[in-house]
Design brief:
Elements lengths: L2 E3 L1 H6 L4 E8 L8 H17 L5 H5 L2 H11 L6 H10 L11 H13 L2 E6 L7 E5 L5 E3 L5 E3 L5 E4 L4 E4 L3 E2 L11 E8 L5 H18 L4 E9 L3
Parallel strand pairs: 1-4
Antiparallel strand pairs: 2-10, 2-11, 3-10, 4-7, 5-6, 7-8, 8-9
Length: 228
């Protein structure tokens, strides 16, 4: 699988990065005691970290501000802010119904607040391209919901269609399933997010997947920037 970056993406997002992590020898276990224990610890750590904060203060986190600048262009709010609120302000437990491969990604998202899409790499069709939406592109997202993209969003596509976009999330076609044995994780980082954080975030995803499946192997990991 080759990854390319379109000239349109480079021009639209000159200070952005996209991290692409491919893991093989994985299993999407329905549950994992080690990963569940990590989630409980993460809940406690996150609540201590943001103790006493309200929604406005959570919104002022540097990473969240960077995403908010992108989302506000489209009249939307960064959805991970809502998930962080549910854990910190509403004391709701961290949970993910998609198996260990999705849970590991979700835990890393809450830890670092970086937006990531997960895909079954064996379903991805051919090479992939990071691009910018022109407006009007259509794809089927999670839960079978149909999306029509607005112009100016970050996305990734394979030779069949769109895999994910920042505003609308991953597609349904390449979702991680119980039988998935290779996982592709794509982290979208708009301007204002240090590349070091992207690297740490995706390394954490790999480590968390290994909690559930120690045989998991990093097949490839690259961070793509608009400017070399």
């Amino acid at each position: 699988m080759q990854v390319s970056i379109s000239d349109a993406w480079r021009q639209a997002f000159p200070d952005a990065h996209v991290g692409v992590l491919l893991l093989d020898h994985v299993r999407n276990r329905a549950d994992s005691a080690a990963l569940s224990a990590h989630l409980r610890k993460l809940e406690s750590d996150v609540r201590r970290r943001y103790a006493g904060a309200d929604r406005a203060q959570l919104s002022e986190q540097e990473v969240i501000r960077a995403y908010q600048q992108h989302y506000r262009q489209f009249g939307q709010t960064y959805h991970l802010l809502g998930q962080l609120e549910s854990v910190v302000l509403k004391a709701r437990p961290l949970a993910s119904p998609g198996g260990a491969l999705v849970t590991a990604m979700f835990a890393a998202e809450i830890e670092h607040l970086l937006l990531t899409a997960g895909h079954d790499a064996d379903v991805v069709d051919g090479d992939v391209e990071v691009d910018v939406s022109r407006g009007g592109e259509e794809y089927v997202g999670m839960g079978g919901r149909e999306y029509v993209l607005k112009a100016g969003d970050m996305l990734m596509r394979d030779e069949t269609g769109i895999l994910s976009a920042v505003l609308t999330g991953p597609d349904w076609r390449t979702r991680l399933l119980p039988g998935s044995t290779r996982a592709l994780y794509v982290t979208y980082a708009p301007a204002g997010i240090d590349v070091t954080l992207v690297r740490e975030h995706q390394a954490d995803i790999a480590d968390l997947v290994r909690l559930a499946e120690p045989s998991a192997h990093v097949a490839s990991f690259e961070i793509y920037a608009a400017t070399p």
